[in-house]
Each structure stands twice: as structure tokens, then as C-alpha cells.
TrEMBL record:
The chain crosses the membrane at residues 67-86, 92-111, 123-143, 149-173, 194-214, 226-251, 307-325, 355-376, 388-406, 621-641, 653-675, 681-703. The lineage of its organism: Eukaryota, Metazoa, Chordata, Craniata, Vertebrata. The keyword Transport applies. This is Solute carrier family 15 member 2. It catalyses: N-acetyl-D-muramoyl-L-alanyl-D-isoglutamine(out) + 3 H(+)(out) = N-acetyl-D-muramoyl-L-alanyl-D-isoglutamine(in) + 3 H(+)(in); glycyl-L-lysine(out) + 2 H(+)(out) = glycyl-L-lysine(in) + 2 H(+)(in); a dipeptide(out) + 2 H(+)(out) = a dipeptide(in) + 2 H(+)(in); glycyl-L-glutamate(out) + 3 H(+)(out) = glycyl-L-glutamate(in) + 3 H(+)(in).
Length: 735
């Protein structure tokens, strides 16, 4: 969830290289970037220290922006399911399409900042886009505003603008913070990045806990308040923009320096084009395919691009880790909706479990850096960056293996999957005596059904087509009565048997096919009184039920104890006590008679409540968060150590694109290969383990490079030969 440090969010050092970039252009023999380089004013200091006052505005801005982004994203999957009524696969696909777009757009932001507007103006303009996206998204969540088409269009436009805004400013904000420090204040800059990273995780931690509360605990328009859950992040983004603009007079604003990423792409493109152009000519082979760019680009630039492409090649397997990691906000949240969220002193919302990741990251980083890694080093084990990353992959795969086991246990309380020419049925005997039920051509209900007996489970009806007219024979106190009902395939029924006007009667009613969504409880009422009844539940939900065993529609209620309901009839007003309506359960409540100032009821649990506790998700969150620390933070630090200073922005773009590709893979799987959820978890586990093996092999043969050696070589020799360059780039150091 919050690998922003590891994903390049606060690694400004790799982009804060104006001097190195200018040096690269000049030493490469190219023209320096156009435009003047004015001397930047010094920002006022914070409390007499070497810390610029301007960084306070940047840190607050980042906290609000991260609160805004992660708060909105925390409730996004449930919004698609509950508000749009999309299925889980479509909701997951759109969620990951949005996440992927958020990590494609940083390339746009980097190009805008480096080649055109500069970091400050890029942040301002894209933050405005960001705010507009949030506002449109919030308005689109107001139920009374138009039909569903309007809601979907507004939400998709809002999400697109949010993705453009959050992705576009991602490579700029941290680098802009680094620009505020003078070159000699390196230790202060380093501490700033620690505070910056803390603000990222603090914003994420608080928002992923708070916004689900705003969604689920606050009701507006008679349902979950998604408009508020999106509106508060929108307000925080407005505050982020206001705070950032407020510090305008204090900032050191560096002019655009020219985009290194574009230069690298041009160099690679020219090399490929030149190689293809000369493929038929008898020209001597060159040591490396990038050497075909030497006619236009300097040897230094080509050498640096070689180093970058080697690291980018190592990035190829990495998207699979992100494919698993980012499912915390989609598949794992959906899994939590089918679990018991009662922790005794607090009932968690299913989307609140995501707060565990930023919390665990803050806990694990010092544990790993100060405890685990030194301990491993004391054991004389060479725990290289490649091995750490592979271990992180294994931990993430294990997390999904545990998620699959949890999903299997959850399915034990779910309704059976219906197949063609099959339906489910149960009998609710509301008469005073046992009833023997026989159904034409069916071998069911061998024993008499006792009065007010809670059925253990549904029975299977086998039909001879899409629907069939069946004879139901009821034997009661020596009498035999036959009732005819048409039964459709892939449906769930309850046959209610009751006494009416001194005789036995029955009614076939349709039940829910699956558990209520989002951990809600479903309840319907059968009125066994001789008078119509108006029922009020929790002073909010109202329903009218006709007399003589009339059946109501289902009500969806939050999990709670409902003991203060009201039943209003011609005889008066009576207390209605439903007891506990539990997570994911479906109930039939029969109002039997009036006793004193209350009505007597009998409650049948048609679909079992969620019995697997949400705490069983904790091990998988522990594993994947530990995997993130080992994989993500280590991976970015390693990749930057392998690239020249002027190319670190290229590595940042490549790293962010691995996140985008991983999310794209998830949406493809969700749409192209629908399968049982536990099987999908197993599939991702197997794929990550396979990719881990491939990555480990690639890492074994990878040869590390110290970019400083290349720089020192260049300083000693103004025009190094191609042989020396290649020798330097391929020095043997196993990782």
C-alpha cells in the first residue's frame, strides 16, 4: 500500500541532480539546456537551523495529498460493488486499471517538469487537475444526482483526472523539497526525506482508517455515505494545494533542466534505427547494440545508457510482485467483507484492514535495519540486494498462499454454487405439529419436519429443464394435501407451511442466492398475525407486512443487536426484539403472536453468518508488508546504486512502470480468466514463485557496476576508448 519511499515517492536524490545533469550534457559534447540559470534566493531558516522554512509547507502538502489519495482509494472497490452494483471481477479490474494509470502518468509529470514548466508550476497545475478530479468524483457519489450512467461517467472522469494529478506530481514533490536545501546541507536534506517519508505513511495510515468509517458509520441518503468518504479526501487535496501555494514566496524554484528520459529514449531509438539501416552493409560488428548510436551521441552518454538498460532488464520480472501487492485494496478487501469483523471493543470496516500495511511498514523498517539485517550479517551470510528482493517475493507469495487457505475456510459458510437444472429448497414448518413433506420425483425430507425447526441446510432439487412444475405433498395429522408450484433452475426457495382457517396451507418463496454484500445482514419478515403489521427497525427502516403469513422483501442492515424495534398493528404498538443480526447472514423472522407489550418471534438463519474472523488476515498482511520492506526499499536502493547520477530519474520512471504493469496484469486476469477466488490466489502464488526463480537466475548472472568508477575513468581520460568503456561496464562482481 504505502511503498512510496520504495516506489520513488520520496527519493528526491535521484532527481535532484541539476549540477550532474548539466555536467553530463556539457561533457557529452551537447548543448546545455536553453534558458538562464538565475541564482536562487535563500529560503528563511526554520527556528534558526539549517532547515529552510519552505520545507514545512512541502511536508504538510505531502501529508494532505497522501491522505487524499489513499483515503479515496481505500473505499474504491466497495464503491464499485455497492454503489454501481458491479460484480467483483469488474470492480477489481477497474480498481487496478486506475492504479496502473497512477503509475504510468509520472512519466508525463517528469517530462513536463524537466522540459517545460519546472517542478513548481507542474505541481501547481497538476494539483488543480487533481482537485477537480476529486470534486467530480465526490459529486458522482451523490445518489440523487442523475441515473447510474451519470454516476459512472462522473466517477470515471474523476478517477482519470486524479490519476493524472497524483501521478504527475509524484516525481516532482520530493525532488522540489530537495531543491530547497543548499548543496552543503546534505545531512539536513537526508533528515528532511525521513520526515517526508513519515508524512507519507502518516497520511496513508490515518486515511485508510478514517475514510472507511466515514463510508460505513455515517449514513447519508439512506445508505453508506460514499459522497462524504470521497468528499473529505477532496477537502484534504484542496488544503494541500492551498498550503503549497501559501509557501510560494519562500521556495527556491529551479528552472527546467532538460529531460534525461527523453534523451535516453532518443539515444536508444537512434541506435536501433542505425543498426537496422546498416544491417545489409558489410560494416564491422560493434561490441554492443547501443554502440550504433556513437555517430550522434557521446561515448559517455552511451556508456551510461548501457548501465541503465542492464538494470531495466533486471526490472522485467518485478511487475509480478506488484500484481500481488496492490490486491490489498481489491481482492483482500473483498475477502474481508466475507469475514467476522467483531474485535470485541471495536468492529472494523472491511476496507479498514488496509491500514495495517502502512502501520507495519513503520514498524518493520527499524526492526529490519537495526535488528534483522545486522543479525544476518553476524551469521556471515552474504544477504545481497538480489537475495533480499527474492526473499521479499517469496514472502508475498506465502501471503497469497495464506489468503487462499482463508478463502477456502470462508467458502464453507457460503451458499453452494448453483448449476443448470438444479435448485435449492428448505422447509419452514410454522404449524403446530410435525409435517411430512414429499416432492414429486425427489428423494428429500425423509423425516417429518418439526414445528419451528431451524433447517440445518438447503436440499438439492434436480429438475428436468430450466423450470418444472412440481407436486408438493404435505401430510399432517392424518391428512394429505397437494400443492403445485413452478420451480426454476439456479434458484433458492423456502416452502413455508402454516395453518390457515383450520387447514394446512403452504407458500413457496424465493430466498437469497448468496451472502449479503459488504458484511451486511439480510432479514425478511413473515407476519403470522391476523392483522397487517408495520415494522420499524432501529427507528430508520420501515416495512409493511400483510396479515396471514404475508412475506416482506429483504432488508439489508448493519451487523448489530436490534432489540428496540416496533411492531404496529390495529391492537397497538409492541416491542420487536430481533437479537443479533450477524455479518453476512440471512434471516427469516416470523412474527408469531402478541404477548404483553411485545410480539413473539421465531428467527431462522437461512444463510450462515461469517464465521472466519478477520484477524486471520493479519498473517498475510504481516508477510506481504515484510516482503515489501525487503523487495521494494532494497530494490530501489540497489537499482540507483547501479546508475549514474544523471540517469537516476530514468530508473525512477522504470521502477514506477513496473507497478503500472503489475496492476495491468491483475485487471487482465480478473476479466479474462474468471475463476474461484481461492484458485486465483493460488495462481498468483505459483506465478510469483516462478518469477522469483527467474529473477534469482537473472540476479546470479548480473554483474554489478560502480558508476563512480565510470566517472573517475572519464575524469582521467577525456576520450576513453570503446574497449576501455566496455571493460569498465562489464567488470565482474557477483551479487
Amino acid at each position: 500500500m504505502v511503498g512510496d519511499k520504495a516506489r520513488g515517492e520520496m527519493n528526491a536524490f535521484q532527481r535532484n541532480e541539476s549540477k550532474e545533469t548539466l555536467f553530463t550534457f556539457i561533457s557529452a559534447g551537447d548543448d546545455p539546456p536553453k534558458g538562464d540559470f538565475p541564482v536562487q534566493k535563500k529560503s528563511p531558516k526554520l527556528c534558526g537551523s539549517n532547515y529552510p522554512l519552505s520545507i514545512a509547507f512541502i511536508v504538510v502538502n505531502e501529508f494532505c495529498e497522501r491522505f487524499s489519495y489513499y483515503g479515496m482509494r481505500a473505499v474504491l472497490t466497495l464503491y464499485f460493488i455497492s454503489f454501481f452494483h458491479w460484480d467483483e471481477n469488474l470492480s477489481t479490474a477497474v480498481y487496478h486499471a486506475f492504479s496502473a494509470l497512477c503509475y504510468f502518468t509520472p512519466v508525463i509529470g517528469a517530462i513536463m517538469a524537466d522540459s517545460w514548466l519546472g517542478k513548481y508550476k507542474t505541481i501547481i497545475y497538476l494539483s488543480i487537475v487533481y482537485v477537480v478530479g476529486h470534486l467530480i468524483k465526490s459529486v458522482g457519489a451523490i445518489p440523487s444526482l442523475g441515473n447510474q450512467v451519470v454516476h459512472v461517467v462522473l466517477s470515471m472522469v474523476g478517477l482519470f483526472l486524479i490519476a493524472l494529478g497524483t501521478g504527475g506530481i509524484k516525481p516532482c514533490v520530493s525532488a522540489f523539497g530537495g531543491d530547497q536545501f543548499e548543496e552543503e546541507h546534505t545531512s539536513e536534506r537526508s533528515k528532511f526525506f525521513s520526515v517526508f517519508y513519515l508524512s507519507i505513511n502518516a497520511g496513508s495510515l490515518i486515511s485508510t482508517f478514517v475514510t472507511p468509517v466515514l463510508r460505513g458509520d455515517v449514513k447519508c441518503f439512506g445508505e453508506d455515505c460514499y459522497a462524504l468518504a470521497f468528499g473529505v479526501p477532496a477537502a484534504l487535496m484542496v488544503l494541500a494545494l492551498v498550503v503549497f501555494i501559501a509557501g510560494s514566496g519562500l521556495y527556491r524554484k529551479m528552472p527546467p533542466q532538460g529531460n534525461v528520459l527523453l534523451e535516453v529514449c532518443k539515444c536508444i531509438g537512434f541506435a536501433i534505427k542505425n543498426r537496422l539501416k546498416n544491417r545489409s552493409h558489410h560494416i564491422p560488428k560493434r561490441d554492443h547494440w547501443l554502440d550504433w548510436a556513437s555517430e550522434k551521441y557521446s561515448k559517455k552518454l552511451i556508456g551510461e545508457v548501457k548501465m541503465v538498460t542492464r538494470v531495466l532488464f533486471l526490472f522485467i520480472p518485478l511487475p509480478m510482485f506488484w500484481a500481488l501487492f496492490d490486491q490489498q485494496g481489491s481482492r483482500w478487501t473483498l475477502q474481508a467483507t466475507k469475514m467476522n469483523a467483531d474485535f470485541g471493543i471495536y468492529v472494523l470496516q472491511p476496507d479498514q484492514m488496509q491500514f495495517l500495511n502502512p502501520l507495519l511498514i513503520l514498524v518493520f523498517i527499524p526492526i529490519f535495519d537495526l535488528g534483522l539485517y545486522p543479525l544476518i550479517s553476524m551469521c556471515k551470510f552474504n544477504f545481497t540486494p538480489i537475495k533480499k528482493m527474492a526473499t521479499g517475493m517469496i514472502l508475498a507469495g506465502m501471503a497469497f498462499g495464506l489468503a487462499a487457505i482463508v478463502e477456502v475456510k470462508i467458502n464453507e459458510t457460503d451458499m453452494p454454487q448453483l448449476v443448470p437444472k438444479e435448485s435449492l429448497i428448505q422447509v419452514l414448518n410454522l404449524a403446530k405439529n410435525p409435517v411430512q413433506v414429499t416432492i414429486q420425483d425427489q428423494d428429500l425430507f425423509q423425516q417429518p419436519v418439526e414445528a419451528f425447526q431451524d433447517p440445518a441446510e438447503y436440499s438439492n432439487l434436480i429438475l428436468n429443464g430450466e423450470q418444472q412444475n412440481l407436486h408438493f405433498i404435505l401430510q399432517h395429522q392424518g391428512l394429505s394435501l397437494t400443492f403445485n408450484y413452478t420451480v426454476k433452475e439456479k434458484s433458492v426457495y423456502s416452502l413455508i407451511v402454516f395453518e390457515a382457517e383450520g387447514s394446512l396451507s403452504s407458500r413457496l418463496i424465493t430466498d437469497l442466492k448468496a451472502k449479503p454484500e459488504n458484511g451486511l445482514a439480510a432479514v425478511r419478515f413473515i407476519n403470522g398475525l391476523s392483522q397487517d403489521a408495520n415494522l420499524t427497525i432501529d427507528s430508520k427502516q420501515f416495512i409493511a407486512v400483510q396479515k396471514n403469513y404475508g412475506v416482506s422483501e429483504y432488508l439489508l442492515l448493519e451487523r448489530d443487536k436490534y432489540s428496540n424495534g416496533k411492531c404496529i398493528t390495529e391492537m397497538g404498538e409492541f416491542t420487536l426484539d430481533l437479537g443479533l443480526l450477524d455479518f453476512g447472514a440471512s434471516y427469516t423472522v416470523v412474527v408469531t403472536n402478541v404477548s404483553g407489550d411485545a410480539v413473539k418471534t421465531w428467527k431462522s438463519e437461512d444463510i450462515k453468518a461469517n464465521s472466519v474472523h478477520m484477524a486471520w488476515q493479519l498473517p498475510q498482511y504481516l508477510l506481504i508488508s515484510a516482503g515489501e520492506v525487503m523487495f521494494s526499499i532494497t530494490g530501489l536502493a540497489f537499482s540507483y546504486s547501479q546508475s549514474p547520477a544523471s540517469m537516476k530519474s530514468v530508473l525512477q520512471a522504470g521502477w514506477l512502470l513496473t507497478v503500472a504493469v503489475g496492476n495491468t496484469f491483475v485487471l487482465i486476469v480478473a476479466q479474462a480468466a474468471p475463476m474461484a477466488q481461492w484458485a486465483e490466489f493460488v495462481l498468483f502464488t505459483v506465478l510469483l514463485f516462478a518469477v522469483c526463480i527467474i529473477f534469482s537466475i537473472m540476479g546470479y548472472f548480473y554483474v554489478s557496476v560502480d558508476p563512480e568508477d565510470l566517472r573517475e575513468k572519464e575524469e582521467k581520460t577525456e576520450t576513453p576508448s570503446r574497449g576501455n568503456m566496455i571493460s569498465l561496464v562489464t567488470q565482474k562482481t557477483k551479487l
